[in-house]
Design goal:
By secondary structure, this protein is α+β, with helices and mostly antiparallel strands. Helices cover 37% and strands 27% of the residues. The chain is built from two helices and four strands; from the N terminus they run E-H-E-H-E-E. It starts with a strand and ends with a strand.
Length: 59
Amino acid sequence: MKILIYGAGVVGCTYGWQLSKAGCDVTVLVRKGQKEFVQKNGIHIICSDFREKVKKIQI
């Protein structure tokens, strides 16, 4: 499934990351001013999972 996410904020990046992990083809639409930065550096997400007793961090 192809998904377009408007905005590279916290919510857009988090949902985009989770959907890509589920096998979806995700594209994130960013503002002109942010395009070069995102192309050069990418989008970095650090996710802490507290559902189990052991803390898991995924990058």
